[in-house]
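Worked problem 6 (solution included).
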Amino acid sequence: MIEDIVKRLDPLPPKSKLIIFGGGFSGQRIARVARQLGTKVLCSRRRENSKGADFIFNADQECSNEIFEGATHVLSCIPPLLNGEDPVLLKIKNQLLNTKNLKWVGYLSTTGVYGDTKGSWVNENTSPNPQQERSIRRLSCEQQWVETKLPLQILRLPGIYGPGRSAFESLSNGTTKMIDKPGQVFSRIHVDDIAGSVLFLINLFSQGKNPPVINVADNLPTNNLEVIAFAAKIAKKSLPSTIPFEVAKKTMSPMALSFWEENRKVDNQLLCKKLGYSLIHPDFKSGLKHCFSKL
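Solution. The predicted structure is:
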């Protein structure tokens, strides 16, 4: 429930206006929570008939200056272009720089920028070392945002899940694969905690608590077998046979294979211990129970 997120958060300052570029899975959730907190929100989609399209933003569409009138906070959820350029900055950098009352600008990035650490922990002091092309592009976009000198925070996210995007969907449609790669773990974050942390960090930023980079991840990196098994137990579904990674990788797409080629645990101590954000779903068990309740 959106109300469960809202009751944990303080409202944004009066007369705040949040512009969200990229109204996908995370962007829409953030928009809904912000509106429930009483904030005016404009959220972009690429096409006019898309759900939640307050305005259109794409490679062919210019942004009206009216959108930026009174804007106090801006969040970009849009991934890089294939050439490594940031699509938001490419189109509206000057409009952002000319927006007088911007208090906070957020960029949703990925923990993929840390690269493969062979299962070791990474935190915000870990030097980025991306190996995948998409992560190299992300780090390039992070730097492009930093160079604007806007009041910026970069939020690095691991695997995102939530209602409609979890292990239950593959269990229901029969596409679940039980891939066993000993020692492999993934970090993840529920979409509700992305929304909660964004609004939490906006308020902290106005109080001068403004670290430039924050990892937004839950408390329990774990392997996919545990996640799928727990989901199957809740849903009372049978599990397919386990497949060794060395066998499974022969039929994986390049994108799927790239996820399995990296192994790291994402530390959330800055967000949760030092800054004080309380996770709504501190681990995959809590998050999956929530997802199942929404089926």
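Discussion: The chain has a mean pLDDT of 96.
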